[in-house]
Amino acid sequence: MQQTSEELALLADLELTRDLAEGVRAELASACRFEDLAPKKRVKVADVHGDRLFLVDGHVVRLAQGVGERLQAFQGLSEPVDLFGDSPQPEDCFVSETHCILLRIPGPALEAVLSASLEVSDIDLDPTEADFLSDLYRLIANNTLALPARPEVALKIQEMTNDPESGIAELTEIIQSDGTIAGALLHATNSPLFRAAKEIKSIRDAVVRLGFRNTRMLAVNLALRQAFKAKNAVTQEAMQKVWREGVLTSAYSYVIADRMKVLDRERALLGGLVAGIGAVPIIQFVEMRDLNPRLDAIHSLVGKLSSITGVLVINYWGLGDDLVAAAEHFGDWGYRAARPDYATIATVARWAALRSEGIEPPDAAGVPGFEVLGLATPEPGGGIAELDASVDALEALKSMFNL
Fold it and tell me: By residue range, what is the domain housing residue 67?
């Protein structure tokens, strides 16, 4: 308890965390720990695994971007020193000159509470939702919130899009490494949409039949689908709604990127699929807390809190800052980027996806993303004119994704 009190006192002094609510800071403190470091020890960015290290006491020499700097801190007399900062480079490191005391703050827990602290003040929560958020904070701060497993097959396939040397053999090997995805891909290949004269029985033949690009898109979809799991009827219905919206958003994201020639269309497809991923841990947490969850209550929580948990998941998966932004701005229709990015594509794509489902989207005049992407702002009741020529491509994607 004494150690937690000392950590809490340090968090109250740090500029990074001093503005957090007291209860949130206390939860974060319980996840932190002090570490002793002997003299002449070298610590690299890779050694801290995304956590934040602060020098509480002692002397070090920091090497950042090729420049050396001597840093010192005196426990109880000076503020701890952030040793790597927000955006360290892989080659950054420091060397201890004396015995040092360090404070380690778990990276995911810190990022989650900082993100939440910026957003929650603007969220209208009823007492039940506020209680839910408090429990969610506790899990985040303790680094015990159950997050969806990394979709390794999807990530490996995405990496192939930037590898000009990859081909059918490499793609086949990746898909075969996951029996569930391989089986689902064979099933899709033998569906009426792609059916050949004879039944396809091997993954290689499936790749040849579908085509390299279609196989990549479908396999990524199938791999990510496994993250959207729920157990009871109500949460399954909520999860299915989230998944369907995500797939539609990904299809529109792909077409928008392709049609407007902005950014990478397959990266845009992935961004559309994961922009709303923050709903998954929320729905699964509802299952843990409530034996009889209400669908409307789940939808409300997802709408208000999924951007917070989405940032956590995308960082955990290591998908990159461009897709972190897509999750962070999920549901923020007023988001305006300085230039086209995947968050903007996902926002406009979600607008189109809702409209295609007969759900009234927000007034397009209040969605700056259209302008940022160079699209004409749709008239009330109208769609995106630039996509009129892409109807066939959209329908093909929807059929491929079983929508």
Answer: 2-107
Residue 19 Cα distances to 114, 136, 370, angstroms: 9, 19, 35
- Of 58, 77, 107, the residue that ends a domain is 107
CA-closest candidate to residue 154, choices 279, 394, 318, 264: 318
Write out the DSSP string of 90-146.
Answer: TT-EEEESS-EEEEEE-HHHHHHHHHHHHHGGG----HHHHHHHHHHHHHHHTT---
Task: For residue 257, list its beta bridge partners.
Answer: none
Q: 37: closest CA among 103, 93, 92? A: 103
Q: To which H or E segment does residue 34 belong?
A: strand 33-37
For the segment 79-96, what is each residue's pLDDT rounded down to a tens digit?
Answer: 899 999 877 888 899 999
In this predicted model, what pLDDT tens digit does every residue of 109-168 receive, in sequence order? 887 777 665 455 556 777 788 778 777 777 776 667 777 887 888 888 877 766 666 778
Total structural domains within the chain: 2
Where does residue 280 rank: exposed (0-12), middle (13-18), buried (19+ CB within 10 A)? buried
Task: Mark which of 74, 107, 140 sits at the end of a domain.
Answer: 107
Q: Does some domain include residue 123?
A: no
Q: Domain containing 84 — which CATH number?
A: 2.60.120.10
On whether the CB atoms of residues 326 and 275 are closer than 8 A, the answer is: yes
Secondary structure of 43-66 in the HEC alphabet? Answer: EEHHHHCCCEEEEEEEEEEEEECC
Work out the burial of residue 136: count CB atoms within 10 Å of its CB; fewer than 13 is exposed, 13-18 middle, 19 or more buried.
buried
